[in-house]
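Lab meeting minutes (informal)
Scribe: AK
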Amino acid sequence: EGGIPIGAALYGADGAALGRGHNRRVQDGDPSLHAETAAFRAAGRQRSYRGTTMVTTLSPCWYCSGLVRQFGISRVVIGEARTFHGGHDWLAKHGVEIVLLDDPECVALMRAFVTDRPDLWNEDIGHD
C-alpha cells in the first residue's frame, strides 16, 4: 500500500485475536499509527491487558515498547530484530516475556524495504 511493511496483532490470554493492524503512517498521514498501536486500537478497550500477547513483524520501537509496558501486555512475539533492535531488551528487563523468532521471511522483507525505501525507513525510525 506504499507504507511501511510491518504488521501486528494482539491476542487474549485464551489465544483469541483481539485486534490486528499494520503500520499506516504513510497511508493515513498519522505519525503515531505504528502496527502495534493499530492492533492495540483495533482490540478496543479491555478491562486488563495482563496475559495478552502482542505479535509483531519487527522489534517494537521505543514508542510501541512504551505502550506494551504502560498497559501491562505480558508477552511480545517478534518476527525479527536484525533490521531494527528496538526496545525488546528493556521490556524483558521489566518482566515482559520476549519471544524472538528470527524469521528469515521477516528479515528478508524488512531488509528489502530498507534498501528500496531508505527515506521512509529513516522517517519511520526517527532518523534524518
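Next up, CB showed the second protein from the same session:
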Amino acid sequence: MKTIYLYLLDTMADWEHGYLLQVLSLQNMTAAHQLTVKTVGRTKQVIKTAGGLTLIPDVTLDEVVMEDAAALVLIG
C-alpha cells in the first residue's frame, strides 16, 4: 500500500486539500491499488490552521517511509 503524505504547517490553508482528499477517498473505493493518507509535520506538536482547525501530525518528517511514499502534498 502506498502512502500520500499531507504536510501540515501552522496557518496552512486547511480548505485547499478538500478536493484532493475527496478524490482519493473515491479512488480508494474503486481502485485495486489502495492508498493511505497520513499527515506529516516537522514535529508532532499541534498545528493551528488558518480556518481554526487544530491538527496533530500522524508522523514527523524523520518518520516518513520513502519506499512507501506515493506523494508529498504541500498545502499553500
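CB comment: The beta strands are 2-7, 35-41, 47-48, 54-55, 59-60, 69-74.
No objections, moving on.
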